[in-house]
From TrEMBL:
The keyword DNA-binding applies. This is LysR family transcriptional regulator. GO terms for molecular function: DNA-binding transcription factor activity; transcription cis-regulatory region binding. Transmembrane segments: none annotated. Belongs to the LysR transcriptional regulatory family. Pfam families: HTH_1, LysR_substrate. Residues 1-58 form the HTH lysR-type domain.
Length: 285
């Protein structure tokens, strides 16, 4: 059993599908099946079987997956340690990043970091902030960039704060919001609660939701076309767009802010590329 087998088992356990796993690993389905059968013969047990939901692992198969994941983690740490011994900032930086931040801020950050450290490669995974936190917890990534105030037991650093806005294609008044059509969008729990708490402080009646869309970008386009107002974070808004904006503040005038955090494990700073990236982010204003 070697690194290829560890990687195959890990990928198959995540996908639960032979076809998708073979595509991800860039091998044929027969080759993947052959490797599985060879492992089963080597250990003398059945590792997987095909059920109604796709590939399902036996108890022995799940144990071997956990072993494979441990071995992949140890191999990665060993490679990082050996690179550290050279005293240079090089290797692969593994990042988990909130999708919104990845779309609007991350490209320029990585470009500038790569200009300083050209020997660094990037492995980036995007998703909801809760998924990013889980990736850092499981050692799948070195550093997470999350939006919203989440509990994280280890190291964290405030990367940026941004205001929230009521936006519309025309001038509107805050006192009229409960009676105006609002466009809602799917987002993470922390932003939903931030907006809901503000609304409950300001109004005694619920908003008039006219439309529910899947993404903030779609919501903004609907707003630009005069279909309703929305409450959006500043990261999404361009100064050149013809939108009327009102900063969200509490009744006492305190701005309602959306925070973005860097999270990581303290021990990860022993890896030179991680320390260089964290220090680089801390310099960003």
């Amino acid at each position: 059993m070697d690194e290829r087998d560890w990687t195959m088992l890990h990928a198959l356990y995540e996908a639960k599908n032979i076809t998708k796993t073979a595509e991800k690993l860039c091998i044929s389905q027969p080759a993947l099946t052959y490797r599985l059968q060879r492992l089963e013969k080597e250990f003398g047990v059945t590792l997987v079987y095909t059920g109604r939901k796709g590939v399902e692992f036996t108890a022995q198969g799940e144990h071997l997956v956990r072993y494979s994941e441990d071995m992949l983690l140890q191999l990665r740490k060993t490679k990082e340690y050996l690179l550290n011994m050279e005293g240079k900032v090089r290797g692969t930086l593994r990042l988990g990043v909130s999708s919104m931040f990845a779309g609007y801020k991350l490209p320029s950050i990585l470009k500038n970091f790569h200009n300083e450290y050209p020997d660094v490669d990037f492995n980036v995974t995007t998703g909801w902030s809760a998924e990013v936190i889980n990736s850092v917890y499981k050692h799948d990534v070195h550093v997470g960039i999350v939006r919203g105030d989440y509990n994280w037991p280890e190291e964290k650093h405030l990367l940026m704060e941004e205001p929230l806005f009521v936006v519309s294609d025309r001038e509107i008044s805050l006192k009229d919001l409960p009676n105006l059509p609002r466009i809602n969008y799917n987002t993470d729990t922390s932003l939903k609660l931030l907006i809901e708490d503000w609304w409950k402080e300001m109004y005694s009646q619920p908003p008039s939701i006219m439309m529910e869309v899947d993404k903030m970008e779609t919501c903004k386009k609907m707003t630009l076309n005069g279909l309703g107002y929305a409450i959006l974070p500043g990261i999404l808004l361009d100064e050149n767009e013809k939108l009327f904006k009102i900063n969200l503040t509490s009744k006492s005038g305190i701005p309602i802010l959306r925070r973005t955090w860097i999270i990581y494990r303290k021990k990860s700073l022993e890896v030179s590329v991680v320390k260089a990236f964290v220090d680089f982010l801390k310099r960003i204003k």
